[in-house]
Amino acid sequence: MKKTNNHIPFNWPYMTGKELYYIAEAHFNGSLAGDGPFTKRCHGWLEERTGCNKGLLTHSCTSALEMAALLLEIQPGDEIIMPSYTFVSTANAFVLRGGVPVFVDIREDTLNLDESLIESAITPRTRAIAPVHYAGVACEMDTIMAIARRHGLQVIEDAAQGVMSSYKGRALGSIGDLGAYSFHETKNLISGEGGALLVNAPDLSLRAEIIREKGTDRSRFFRGDVDKYTWQEVGSSFLPGELIAAFLWAQLEEADRITQTRLASWQRYHELLEPLEAKGALRRPIVPDELQHNGHMYYVLIAPEFDRQRVLDEFKRHEILSVFHYVPLHSSPAGVRYGRAHGRLDITTRQSQRLVRLPLWIGLSSEQQHRVVEVLRNATGC
Ligand SMILES: *Cc1c(COP(=O)(O)O)cnc(C)c1O
Questions:
Q1: What is the CATH number of the domain that holds 369?
Q2: 63 Cα to the center of ligand 1, angstroms
Q3: For the packed helices 205-212 and 61-71, what is the interaxial angle rounded to 10 degrees?
Q4: Is residue 60 in contact with ligand 1, taking CB distance under 6 Å?
Q5: From the CA of 28, how far away is ligand 1's center (Å)?
Q6: What's the CA-to-centroid distance between 326 and ligand 1, angstroms?
Q7: What is the CATH number of the domain that holds 153?
Q8: Is the dihedral of CA 136, 137, 143, 144 positive or negative?
């Protein structure tokens, strides 16, 4: 489609203006490999802002989840309970170790893992639960943690979308044994590709450092705790270089302002769409009490009597890019091959066919948001 001035992109990466300055600083420092001064600043930020025991930058949330599977020593046949309504990386990370994703249905309100279905999905092979905080809105973590403790399971939070969100005052990613963040260009705080593993269980911290540094105790060596570093266990290279960390640092410094700006745009959509919800055209996102979200995503669930494709076509005709996701993992080819569906997953199937994501990025104007809402109004005749 030819771009005109009316074109509204779905996402537009926001930069604070300091990224290149910090990259230049890293360049002049002559320290380009991982775990240099900018990486340390980012780690400090993660530990301070989330309360995790150890925050470690990774290449992506995908690689943080892969580290988590190594760290928990997932073995072939081990089962991991997760939603089907998620990005592929939640499942892939465990399948790489021979693990079996067990897909559980989601809640009607938040589209998060339905905690009331978890216990019936547990078998003697279950090792872990991987809740995904969809749209930066927290899962019911108290219940999930209680189930995990009762059955001796570990919890890995996929908090890719949940940076700067909280559950009862606790940062997402800091509640389970491990948490994974994404700094991908489409998320709130970005470094192009990027992520972090939050290690909350103190007894996993040392091994996390080892796995991230090719299976060596290089970090311990640099701290002066050992006089040489050696191959300790199976690992890989999960750490990003300093240029990425320098870029990310510029974003972390502005994390509060970025989050506030996104929340303001989120709130504007929410208010503009109230009349459409009242007329039955769609359902707006539901954020339970005691949760603070981060304005990561604004989506609507188009009412069943309307054709979602028609809505998407109308957006396209008006040069507004809107997208939908996910194809539920339990119904995708690899999900069928490597995973197992627990029950019918009716809500997952139904909601994934109704969901439409609206453009949301820093710099999106109020006038543009009005145009988006106008298209929704016309497409549903409300
Ligand atoms: C974005 C996303 C990921 C993957 O993050 P990357 O940093 O791109 O690897 C994983 N899980 C969820 C829920 C996501 O939204």
A1: 3.90.1150.10
A2: 10
A3: 120
A4: yes
A5: 32
A6: 12
A7: 3.40.640.10
A8: negative
Looking at the structure, do residues 144 and 263 belong to the same domain, yes or no?
A: no
Residue 284 in tokens: 């707006």
Nearest-CA residue for ligand 1 atom 8 is 184
* Cβ-based neighbours of 342, under 8 Å, separated by 6 or more: 81, 102, 103, 104, 105, 117, 120, 121
Q: Which of 11, 156, 183, 184 to mutate to test the pocket of ligand 1 (most atoms within 8 A of CB)?
A: 184
pTM for the full predicted model: 0.97
* 235 in Cβ contact with 218 (< 8 Å): no
Q: How far is the CA of 160 from the centre of ligand 1 (A)?
A: 5
Q: Does residue 356 form part of some domain?
A: yes
pLDDT tens for the chain, residues 1 to 382 = 455 678 999 999 999 999 999 999 999 999 899 999 999 999 999 999 999 999 999 999 999 999 999 999 999 999 999 999 999 999 999 999 999 999 999 999 999 999 999 999 999 999 999 999 999 999 999 999 999 999 999 999 999 999 999 999 999 999 999 999 999 999 999 999 999 999 999 999 999 999 999 999 999 998 999 999 999 999 999 999 999 999 999 999 999 999 999 999 999 999 999 999 999 999 999 999 999 999 999 999 999 999 999 999 999 999 999 988 899 999 999 999 999 999 999 999 999 999 999 999 999 999 999 999 999 999 998 8
Instruction: Give yes or no: residues 212 and 276 share one domain.
Output: no
Is residue 133 classed as helix, strand or coil in its secondary structure? coil
Domain that holds residue 368: 255-380
> Using an 8 Å Cβ cutoff, are 158 and 61 in contact?
yes
Boundary (domain end) residue, out of 253, 271, 294: 253
Let me know whether 177 and 260 are in one domain. no
